Amino acid sequence: MSSRPHRVAGALLAALLAIALLALTPSFAVVALLRDAAAPPEIAKVLPAAKEQLHKTRGFQWPAGYYRYLATETRTSDNLVVLHFEYRAYPFITASRAYLASRCKPLEQIDPREMGFGWGPDSESELTYLRSRAQDPCP
Hints:
The chain is an alpha+beta fold and 139 residues long.
């Protein structure tokens, strides 16, 4: 009779563990399936710092979040560099877009801590302006 409470506690613990694993499965799938895009060597070395910078700019975020590097946009005339990312928060169903941008600095010298940023569709006008020829010339 005394082993019955232990069996019940063990079954309850096993059920809670199964629920926790099921709840975490999407995060493992996201990390496994949604990898960063291939990046030029100059970008690959700053990707961790870029993701950290985006994390700092966002303010409060759901603890289970995932940044994925999508692409780099460059323009040689004024050294425009735009790093495109997506951010997914648990349960990872939808993604929001984000970017870090720099001008007037060669690709090899960019520092994510000094780059401008934007999040979501509200920042599309800023990105359009960065891409436009209306920018002041680089010194």
